[in-house]
Specification:
The chain has 84 residues and is mainly α. It contains 4 helices and no strands.
Length: 84
């Protein structure tokens, strides 16, 4: 499997020095990568990292504002009223 970024190559070199991967594994990945110019970092899925923290921050405030919008009635009570 070839390296996808310079950051990944550095991480594997670090693991090699620590003895967590074998020299053969590092060489295999290096060989498969060849002389390609790699990007410093590969962008992940859209919003993969930021969404978690943003969701957590919005979730706390969003819950308060949603509760305020409903007033004293709970979501369950509101649904029950619609059925009647």
């Amino acid at each position: 499997m070839p390296f996808k970024s310079q950051a990944q190559r550095r991480k594997f070199a670090e693991l090699l020095v620590e003895g967590k991967i074998s020299p053969e594994t590092f060489e295999e990945w290096n060989r498969e990568t060849g002389g390609r110019k790699l990007p410093e970092r590969v962008k992940g899925a859209k919003g993969a990292r930021g969404a978690k923290s943003a969701r957590g921050a919005r979730g706390a405030r969003g819950a308060k504002s949603a509760k305020g919008a409903r007033g004293a009635k709970s979501a369950k009570g509101a649904r029950g009223a619609k059925r009647r």
